[in-house]
Amino acid sequence: MIGRLEWIKGIELTLIALRNLKRIGAKAELIIVGDGAEESKMKFLTHALNLADDVSFLGALRPNQVKEVLSTAHVLICSSWSEGISNSVLEAKATGVAVVSANVGGMSEVINHKISGQIFEIGNVNDLTERLMDYYVNNEERLKITNMARLEAEASHDLNSQIQQFISVYQDLIQSPANK
């Protein structure tokens, strides 16, 4: 997970999903990059769920350090209660890291479920756990999805493409009848 440690990021959902995975014997660990007001609460919850050996809090990192952490990850989780389009999800896709995200904001615009990532129902820990299990038990499927995600990110989310999209929107606004 990458982001500020605030309630809106749904970190507790991911911690509970990790506990669920551990209960069924899955070998998994969670790395959390970021800091914020909820850090002590998340650390307490980690201990309360008996996950202290399975969760690492790395704090705020510089962009090159985040990239390094992503390069070792198998899955990036975005369990937010609210989100526009998560930059960390776009970065993960471009890096070839599988993504599991809550179906919030614009996330369904950047993740095609089971094609370039996985989407789960907002706040549904069981659904999140199932999406993570999909990747855990089927590494071949995870690799296929991450390859598609990388291609999608290169085609749709590179800087030049974003610039062209902004230019197009502004040109449409300038040429609209309301502005003449």
Written overview of the protein:
By secondary structure, the chain is mainly α. The chain has helices spanning 11-23, 39-48, 63-72, 87-95, 107-110, 125-137, 139-156, 159-175; strands spanning 30-33, 55-59, 75-78, 98-102, 118-120. The protein has a single domain, classed as Glycogen Phosphorylase B (Rossmann fold, 3-Layer(aba) Sandwich). The strands form two sheets. It has a three-stranded parallel beta sheet with strand order 3-4-5, sandwiched between helices. It is globular, with a radius of gyration of 18 Å.
Give the end-to-end Cα distance, rounded to a whole number of Å. Answer: 47 Å
Helix run count: 8
The shape, in one word, is globular
CATH third-level topology: Rossmann fold
The tally of structural domains comes to 1
Attribute tags:
Rossmann fold, 8 helices, two-stranded parallel ribbon, 180 residues, 5 strands, single chain, 52% helix, mainly alpha
